[in-house]
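User: Predict the structure for this protein chain, please.
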Amino acid sequence: MGQSRRKHGKVRTTRPAVSGRDGFADGLREGLRQGEAYGYHVGACARICQTIPQDGRAMRDVRVFYVKEGFASLDRGIIHALQKLVREVVPLHEADDAAGLALRHRPDLVLVLNGTRFPVSQADALRAQGIRVALWLVDDPYHTDLSSVTAPHYDIVFTHELGCVEFYRQLGCPQVHYMPLAAGPETYFPRRVDAEYRTDICFIGNAFRNRLAFIDEIAPFLADKKVLIAGWWWDRLSRFELLRDKIRLNTDWLSPEETCSYYNGAKIVVNLHRADDDPSNFNSRGIAGVSVNPRTYEIGACGSFQLSDLRGDTASLYRPGVEIATYSSPAEFISIAAYYLEHEREREGIALRGLRRTLEEHTYAKRLDSLLEVALA
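Assistant: Here is the predicted structure, written as structure tokens:
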């Protein structure tokens, strides 16, 4: 006899094991069912992508210098969006002589991402030429010891972290605005992927202290599932041997394209934010993070089901339980993940609604349009 288990108010029945021809037939039927479900998902995502109106914003007749930080996904998404929004975009490396180039090319705006390696002397020289210089901080609050030194050298500071807005105002920065991150749909989008990318559960990110503790606690739950964990330092896990065959360890950081493929192939993509007090942080003031990371939007743009730890700003961006699933502890994660692995239609519904919300509200084209409206005013 099978056993009934109650999950989230619903009853799930487990079937007794089968073998031989019956097992082969059941396996074949299950394979066909999964293929049909995957095909439905890809088609449903395509329909959503086709129904979202293309950005119809008028192009601004301005030239923008964009100083990259080296975050491939962010740089690519921002440049692609700017190319649709302004007459000319000049991407620069943080080591380039932006002030010298500005003397010849006279940009209307210089936008610097993060600015940790862009000399403040360059920002000062650009401002001395009468050129407006804006800083978009995307590592808050983890690097606030560094950004507190650089931010006052800019005309305008944008931060993706809502909890840091007042901090920069108190530093005397003339203009400070909350500007969340986003996804670039030209990089992160629904796609059909081969079997090598398909998993039950996927997490891509480095093994910060809080992530190690979390994965160690849920390791027995992950052990009998098809799981991918990719990033640096995962050999620090106490239960590393239990999960060794599921970890892509200390490789070069996955490209955005490969990350997108893994997101598309996973039944559940895990999002676990970095802790405010990690020893590797530069956050001696202990500023709490309440805003979400770029991974949140990138998973959403892939049409993938996301199970994320809950941040204070999450509900203003995605509806928990409707467009994103959330958890508050390892035990709750196990319960919710087990439920959604079994309840495919509910999982699919959340993933598709998350895709729609992302494309409607959380793309770099929409973020940059808002940023330019402020920066060029």
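The CA atoms of residues 209 and 286 lie 16 Å apart.
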